[in-house]
Amino acid sequence: MSAAPKTPKKPARPLVLLNARIVDPAGNHDERGGILVLDEKIAAIGPEVTRDNAPTEAEVIDCGGNVLAPGLVDMRVQLREPGDEHQETIDTGSLAASAGGVTSMVCLPNTNPIIDDVAGVEYIARRARETKRAKIYCYGALTQGLEGKDLVEMGLLAECGALGFTDALQAVADVMVMRRALTYARNFDLLIVQHPEEPRLAAGGAMNNGELATRLGLPGIPACAEVMMIERDLHLVRMSGARYHVAHVSTAAAVEAIRRAKQEGLRVTCDTAPPYFSLNENEIGDYRTFARLSPPLRGESDRRAIAAAIAEGVIDCIASDHAPHDVESKRVPFVQAAAGIVGLETLLPVSLELYHKGSVSLLHLLKCLTSRPAEILGLPQGRIAKGAPADLVLIDLDRPHRVDVAGFRSKSKNSPYDGRPVQGMVLRTFVDGRQVFGQQVFAQQGRN
Amino acid sequence: MSAEPRTPTAFFPHKHLLGIEGLSPAEIERLLDLANHYADLPKDDTTARALLRGRTVMNVFFEASTRTQTSFELAAKRLGADVTNMSVSTSSIKKGETLLDTAMTLNAMRPDVMVVRHGDSGAVNLLSQKVDGAVINAGDGRHEHPTQALLDALTIRRRLGRLQGLLVAICGDILHSRVARSNIHLLTKMGVRVRVIAPTTLLSSGIERMGVEVFTDMRKGLKDVDIVMMLRLQLERMQGAYVPSIREYFHFFGLDYDKLSLAKPNALIMHPGPMNRGVEIDSEVADDINRSVIREQVEMGVAVRMACLDALTRNLRGGN
């Protein structure tokens, strides 16, 4: 696990961030003060960091009282490299990440070629080093070629830096393969990530099953397709004792199943993505393909259940589920359209809606975006502590603006949030103490 | 970029006819009145023949059809329009780009009206956003088939003198049927009580929220209805996937005299065609001169399509 991506060495100039509201979910701290960064690591935190005791050669930044938090750790993105560089590359994806306050992200193995061998994992690690922005990790495929049959060399891939194993956008349908995968993963205590959807029940479906699908004449995916797969897997988790993570939970029934599994003491975690607590199936309206997702947007009661499960802590993390698609993949009839949205640049402002509405505290929300995913992935970042990597994001919590896809750094613009009024803006992003993004405040104000 | 302004008229204040769902009862009524007028007009009426002279109507069918395409072609010709028929093979439209590419190519030839059928729900809406002329939906996936619902309504109105207060049963493959959806929208808007009758595997989730009563027993569902509308069951859905066999389907959901006897004594029988005799309808019932209005439906189809072409091109003629 030693070959995790590292940003290249640079003459390390000390960095002093002053006059900040430091919010650290891992330590449960929310206090005013400053941060001193030496050699890419956090060296001192709190009121004792002042302009007066800053090292003379240090770069000093006044944070203006804004929130300084750990950089976001996004545990589910697709960067399309290698294979589909016309939709996104590791470079454009990390630009988008740094603009969104994301300092670490984990990409799915559904590239071309598929990341199911050591070379694939090493390729991502090398490209991540070259890119010098957000830290980029990957999951390995769980089965060779994502075919759901034969296991990959999980131990070797993990040694090269794969943070977990998943068949990306599809569930492992064969229950015996899944049983062996979980049992073998237990050997090295590896994380297995599942796309929870019973594939035969969802076959051919384009949106949530129900009245709206009937009216639009679109084939529906029943909500229970999600919980069925989770409950099947939970029996195997109980048998194997493996670490099992459920991706993008979207239904109340799935939340219930995971809540019970956690109470039972199974090693189960899960995440959701912003669309599942901020949008419902009505977003599809007149066949808007930007609202086609996998899993599909659900009804309003499920949306509420997801928001509540974040507040309650049943849902551990919020991930962007960033899925860039070119125009041609979306300007087609709904049933033919590719599923997914770009999410890196809306992850924070849309998640902050939960805080602004008062349904979660800031500390709790940031925990879902930073320390909790880092903990599940086994990464040292995602917290503000002495000796931790200086991956930080400076946020103007209250600044209102509108999502503007034209300004996205991502190569693809497939977002259902275009024009949405949101509150909260990333001002600066730091990776290992280097600023990788700075908001052009005046240009931004001019545009809005 | 067509030269004429494309402001919809008060007669029919929509640029396209994409479905029944967005229409008001008054607009439906006006279309039916106009269609009724065309139904009574001689085929060679010279005023009608002059109406669309010099205008171009394109039939663009991404899904095979002979009846609907011919009906639209005749309707356009009886109004004096130039008509082209284009069938796009399914293989060449597998990639969605081709749909919009095709739309833009055809649009460059500046048709005044495009009549479009496509196998995917919503595809005609998508295409309509990219073209300058009017678009008539000739059936999109499982979504809508508005001219079929209009011709069904006109057939009923001419036979029974009204729509308001009638009781209609729509029977068969509701799940996959655009005809059922358009008819449900139209009939419920016009004050008709609608029942749907189907085996549970061929019902669509939440269909009752569209204002219909749901029956899975044909004998109960047909009780006292004024109209029985049968739907076609696609062959590939009969053998085990949705129903176990043709024999079992016909036994429980095929229309024969025995089940029909539960409807009102003179209840009319309708079918959008093409029929599967012995699957959803008994041959004798289909051919019953007193009860079956299936041939009349086809005849009204041309009149309804003339009315739709007329209504959507009024803005081009500056009239109202």
UniProtKB/TrEMBL annotation, chain A:
Bound cofactor: record note: Binds 2 Zn(2+) ions per subunit.
Binding site for Zn(2+) 2: 195, 248
EC nos: 3.5.2.3
Homology family: Belongs to the metallo-dependent hydrolases superfamily. DHOase family. Class I DHOase subfamily.
Gene3D superfamilies: Metal-dependent hydrolases, Urease, subunit C, domain 1
Protein name per the record: Dihydroorotase
Binding site for Zn(2+) 1: 321
Phylogenetic placement of the source organism: Bacteria, Pseudomonadati, Pseudomonadota, Alphaproteobacteria, Rhodospirillales
Gene Ontology CC terms: cytoplasm
Gene behind the chain: pyrC
Organism name: Dongia mobilis
UniProtKB/TrEMBL annotation, chain B:
Biological processes per GO annotation: 'de novo' pyrimidine nucleobase biosynthetic process; 'de novo' UMP biosynthetic process; amino acid metabolic process
Residues of the Aspartate/ornithine carbamoyltransferase Asp/Orn-binding domain: 165-311
A Pfam family of this chain: OTCace
Entry GO MF terms: amino acid binding; aspartate carbamoyltransferase activity
Reaction(s) catalysed by this chain's protein: carbamoyl phosphate + L-aspartate = N-carbamoyl-L-aspartate + phosphate + H(+)
Enzyme Commission number(s) from the entry: 2.1.3.2
Keywords assigned: Pyrimidine biosynthesis, Transferase
Pathway as given in its UniProt record: Pyrimidine metabolism; UMP biosynthesis via de novo pathway; (S)-dihydroorotate from bicarbonate: step 2/3
Domain of life: Bacteria
Binding site for carbamoyl phosphate: 67-68, 117, 145, 148, 273-274
InterPro entries linked: Asp/Orn_carbamoyltranf_P-bd, Asp/Orn_carbamoylTrfase, Asp/Orn_carbamoylTrfase_sf, Asp_carbamoyltransf, Asp_carbamoyltransf_Asp/Orn-bd
Residues reported in the UniProt entry to bind L-aspartate: 95, 178, 232
Domain Aspartate/ornithine carbamoyltransferase carbamoyl-P binding: 15-157
GO cellular component labels: cytosol
Purpose: Reversibly catalyzes the transfer of the carbamoyl group from carbamoyl phosphate (CP) to the N(epsilon) atom of ornithine (ORN) to produce L-citrulline.
NCBIfam families: asp_carb_tr, PRK00856.1
Family: Belongs to the aspartate/ornithine carbamoyltransferase superfamily. ATCase family.
Oligomeric form and interacting partners: Heterododecamer (2C3:3R2) of six catalytic PyrB chains organized as two trimers (C3), and six regulatory PyrI chains organized as three dimers (R2).
Protein name (Swiss-Prot/TrEMBL): Aspartate carbamoyltransferase
Organism: Dongia mobilis
